Amino acid sequence: PPPCPSTPTRRCALCNCGDWSPHGQRELQRFEPAPEWPERLAGHETPEGPGQPPPEPEPAGDDLAQIGFSDRVTPVQLFEPTGHCWVHRWCAAWSAGVGQEAAGLAGVDRAVFSGISQKCEHCRRMGATIPCRAAGCPRLYHFPCAAASGCFQSMKTLRLLCPQHVAEAVQMEDARCSVCDGPGDLRDLVFC
Asked: In this structure, are residues 94 and 143 in contact, taking their beta carbons and an 8 Å threshold?
């Protein structure tokens, strides 16, 4: 059932898509804040000034044209007042600085903070936290944009290679077609 109008629509603090998205990000999860959460907000006032309510967030959407955020997104728009944030499972797991711990993924809030100022190579919007893992490559992507731009994504190692470095994937064990066991076109992530 659709949410009540009084309930705010949940959306991913990295890709800006809603609860369910057709781009493979998996489920939207609520992540705990870091212990230093209150200190992290220092210096991050709303564009309207101290004590003013944050602007309405951009509409969440699942169209690739609506992935990410404009340059004006603030932590106040992406985090609950308690410091919790909502992020898709794959958007979080693939992000730089996020790691798996016994209790689940850790460092998601730090990834959201870094995404506020990081632009996606594909859509040119903010919220990109997934780096190309080629040495010295500065390119960053949103999870849905990585596939749309032809990146190679290793589902075993959560390692991404941008289209300019996709040839490096030949050395990776999961860079082979699951049907013919050949390398195929490395931009086709499952089949050649």
From this structure: yes
Q: Within 10 A of 49 (CB to CB), how many other CB atoms are there?
A: 7
Minimal CA–CA distance to 64: which of 143, 4, 10, 5? 143
Most confident listed range (68-72, 140-144, 178-182): 140-144
pTM of the predicted model, to two decimals?
A: 0.78
Could you report the per-residue pLDDT of 158-177, keeping only the tens digit for each?
A: 999 999 998 888 776 666 66
Identify the bridge partners of residue 86 per DSSP, sorted by sequence position.
30
Q: Is 37 exposed, middle or buried (0-12, 13-18, 19+ CB in 10 A)?
A: middle
Using an 8 Å Cβ cutoff, are 12 and 46 in contact? no
Q: List Cα–Cα distances, 60 to 19, 31, 123, in angstroms.
A: 10, 19, 15
Quote the longest CA-to-CA distance of the chain: 60
